[in-house]
Inverse folding.
């Protein structure tokens, strides 16, 4: 629970730093959403061809991707 609070605080600070420039903020958020969606689609495409990579399932790799993206 403590780490979740720290993560939320970090995300708030990060968004506030991006919000300094109004229009750039919206373009940055839109760009991040598009980039993350495309990365997830690419991972899904790879896992449609190969169901398990070195013993990892799609869900496990998606969790690893999410943790790497948030850090």
């Amino acid at each position: 629970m403590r780490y979740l609070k720290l993560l939320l605080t970090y995300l708030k600070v990060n968004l506030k730093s991006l919000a300094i420039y109004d229009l750039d903020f919206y373009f940055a958020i839109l760009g991040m959403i598009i980039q993350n969606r495309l990365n997830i689609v690419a991972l899904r495409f790879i896992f449609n061809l190969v169901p398990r990579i070195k013993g990892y399932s799609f869900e496990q790799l998606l969790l690893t991707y999410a943790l790497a993206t948030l850090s």
